[in-house]
Amino acid sequence: MTAPLDAEGGPGPDITVAFQPVVDLDRSLVYAYEALVRGRSGSGAAEVLEQVAPAGRYAFDQVCRVTAIALAARLSVATGLSVNFLPNALYEAETCLQTTVRAARHYAFPTDRLIFELTEGERVADVGRVREVVRECQRQGLRVAIDDFGAGYAGLNLLADLTPDAVKLDMGLVRGLDGCRRRRAIVHGVLTTCRDLGVEVVAEGVETTGELSALRDLGVRYAQGYLFARPAIERLPVVQWPDRAG
To answer: Is 221 exposed, middle or buried (0-12, 13-18, 19+ CB in 10 A)?
Structure first.
């Protein structure tokens, strides 16, 4: 699919979507799939975004979500579907949030399966405005997650201000967790806080059985990473279930 014209008047990058599962370790099943933008040549999200002029970034962000929903419907995704939002794009709820909901209805993808992930790549300019939109999402039965929690701008203040349904622990906190007492203490603190707030926690970037074992010992239920499956372009990858996940 080709993105709309960017701010320079030229066509945006030709994109597709890869899917990576988020797994429920307690039940050994797929809880959701995260939709990840990719170039048609297989290029990653960062390389794709480099081709988008700054003024066209939010419109392109929207195109990525619509593309993800269309492909998820075509693949008969029967779980949650995580689609990324740049937080400041939420200012234009009618042209951003509602367009996404309309796309889900158009492709007959149940809106209650949508999970909006607020990415950490930019500082939230107006927390009050974003909070209102997050609450409206939740009133409509949609779920909201903070992505890359613990990195960039996605920290405790955002958790306190937005009261999301879930946070996704940044892979920097997960990496080498089994051999790092400091990381384990931080993750334990995040888990305790989130349990008190009724917020689910997903561990991102799980790559080793040691990391998985440490996460399970801390009580993590949901996880995502190469240990289970790499992202697959325009298809749903087969999940590998390590013995320790049971």
So the answer is: middle
CB of 154 within 8 A of CB of 164? Answer: no
Low-confidence residues of the chain, pLDDT below 50? 1-11, 244-246
Q: In one letter, which amino acid is 76?
A: S
Q: Is 15 exposed, middle or buried (0-12, 13-18, 19+ CB in 10 A)?
A: buried
CB of 116 within 8 A of CB of 89?
A: no
Angle of CA points 109, 111, 113, to nearest 5°: 85
54-107 pLDDT tens trace: 777 778 888 889 999 999 999 999 999 999 887 766 655 555 678 888 999 999
Q: What integer pLDDT is reported at residue 185 of this predicted model? A: 96
Task: Select from 10, 235, 11 the least CA-distant residue to 2.
Answer: 11
